[in-house]
Amino acid sequence: MVRGEVALRPWGATPKDPEYLAAAWADADIAKFCKAPDDRSREFAGRWIEKEPVRRDKGSSVDLCIIKVGEPEVIYGEVGMVLAEPGRRWAELGFWLFPGVRGAGIATSAVGVFSDWAVAFQGINRIFARIHPDNPRSQAVVERCGYERVGELADGTVVWAFDVK
């Protein structure tokens, strides 16, 4: 999947992927706004990556690396989804970027191409994103990608949705 200079590829394509994932889990902002495991070691990241194809093949989730075209070994972030309501074909979106590449349009390109792919090729009817109220940049990303604000949870988390039209 490619949009502009941004491409998506599976985890595990290079031997350095576990280092990137462990570094992401250790980043304070990523850990604050995304689910990160208690074990954030390179070894655990490697085991998580090894199991990603199984989750994808089962149809329960998919997680892809965000890279630049022509630079498959450098990971800028991740975009993925978890099938939240299988009977309705609803999925929950998640994404993150490393600090040095935020604000350059990379997340918008990645979330946009990923969302279009999920609807067109995975049969997803609705993708939703739950975004922390202290994370306006991520809210701006999903809004630019055509998600609509559909509600707010009791803790202030903002819910956005991308529906098949």
Your description of this structure?
- This protein is an alpha+beta fold and 165 residues long.
- It has a single domain (2-163), classed as 3-Layer(aba) Sandwich (Aminopeptidase).
- Helices cover 36% and strands 30% of the residues.
- It has an eight-stranded mixed beta sheet with strand order 1-2-3-4-5-6-8-7.
- A hairpin with a 4-residue loop joins strand 4 and strand 5.
- Helix 1 (17-26) packs across helix 3 (42-58) and helix 4 packs across helix 5.
Please provide a brief summary of the model.
Helices cover 36% and strands 30% of the residues. By secondary structure, the protein is α+β, with helices and mostly antiparallel strands.
Q: Top keywords for this entry?
A:
alpha+beta; eight-stranded mixed sheet; 5 helices; 8 strands; 165 residues
